[in-house]
Write a structure and sequence with these properties.
2 domains; 3-stranded parallel sheet; 11 helices; Transcription Regulator spoIIAA; 8-stranded parallel sheet; alpha/beta; 332 residues; Glutaconate Coenzyme A-transferase
Length: 332
């Protein structure tokens, strides 16, 4: 692994020639300085860039009309940065089950360049993938196996989230950075959301403190999950579990209060997620070497087989739209 001092040492047309396929981590682990350099260097052309919910205002230029003419954007999960480019036809939208992203990394995406954010190393010399795993681990493994290049930012503000790590030899270049992680503002519930939360808690959230298992929770982001959290606390239940692809502040609150213990999970007693978001740096700091939560790739967190093993699974998400056939979507 070579440590670099500025992004353009490796984010250039020599490292990323025409025909390259890049996979970049997203959410709070979006490698913003690397991607910002990719946006600025107009000698890098005719490449494909795969992303899952990229965040961070530093990379807005990456999705400009001008840059979309030389970069083929393939968006797996939209964010505020990508939505206009997708809707205008400047970028491609690739609907894909989160559980299948790691599989498609080897079968379809096949990246020869991986951009990511890490934290660490720990005493074993391993680096955490931080707040975003989803398909990143598979991307690193594919690039390592097929002679690709792995370029990482080590952001001083990125927590070392336990669970999914990579060895130092899996990283080719490391850039030291220190800038704020993207935040996910808490959506305070209105009266309608609070009523929905009360109904969900009353009907579907089971107390696990007795002889029967408590509910296992999966949350999305929005007013309703926040309202459900408040209703669960008011209901006074305990010994619940968490198995989710996204863990945000509402779930942190349940863990801190001792409502979630993961007592009834069949294999381990910690919360599992593939992506972590917070409304503050304090929320990210709480994740740092915290053994009550661990990260896993999305083919684990979103596997129907793993989910089916868990007691009394309750999935709570907000829909963006519903079509005439009753199909619901939340990621367009």
């Amino acid at each position: 692994m070579k440590t670099i001092s500025v992004p353009d040492e490796v984010i250039n047309a020599r490292t990323i020639p025409p025909g390259s396929v890049i996979y970049a981590s997203g959410n709070a682990a979006t490698p913003q300085l690397l991607l910002a350099q990719l946006a600025r260097d107009h000698s890098i052309v005719d490449i494909d860039l795969y992303t899952v919910l990229p965040l961070g205002d530093r990379i807005a230029e990456l999705y400009s009309a001008e840059r979309c003419r030389t970069i083929t954007h393939r968006v797996i999960f939209n964010s505020y940065l990508t939505r206009q480019a997708v809707n205008s036809g400047c970028a491609y939208y690739h609907p894909m089950h989160l559980s299948e992203i790691p599989k498609h990394m080897f079968q379809r995406i096949k990246p020869n360049v991986v951009l990511l954010t890490v934290s660490g190393p720990d005493h074993g010399g391993n680096y955490s993938l931080g707040t975003t795993v989803e398909g990143v681990l598979a991307a690193v493994q594919y690039a390592n196996k097929h002679g690709g290049v792995v370029i990482a930012e080590r952001n001083a503000k990125m927590p070392f989230v336990l669970g999914t790590t990579i060895p130092e030899e899996a990283i080719d270049y490391l850039l030291e950075t220190d800038y704020p992680l993207p935040l996910s503002p808490v959506h305070h519930p209105d009266d309608r959301a609070r009523r929905i939360g009360e109904i969900i808690a009353a009907l579907y959230i089971h107390d696990g403190r007795g002889e029967e298992p408590g509910s296992t929770l999966q949350y999305g982001i929005g007013e309703v999950p926040e309202a459900v959290t408040d209703a669960i606390i008011r209901k006074g239940v305990g010994d619940l579990a968490i198995h989710t692809e996204l863990l945000a502040d509402a779930m942190q609150n349940l863990i801190k209060r001792g409502v979630v213990t993961n007592r009834w999970k069949p294999h381990f007693t910690f919360a599992v997620s593939s992506i972590f978001l917070s409304e503050s740096q304090a929320g990210y700091d709480w994740l740092h070497f915290n053994s009550s939560v661990q990260s896993r790739p999305s083919d684990y967190t979103n596997s129907v087989f793993k989910i089916s093993e868990l007691p009394r699974m309750v999935a709570i998400n907000s829909a963006i739209g519903v079509d005439l056939h009753g199909n619901i979507w939340a990621d367009s």
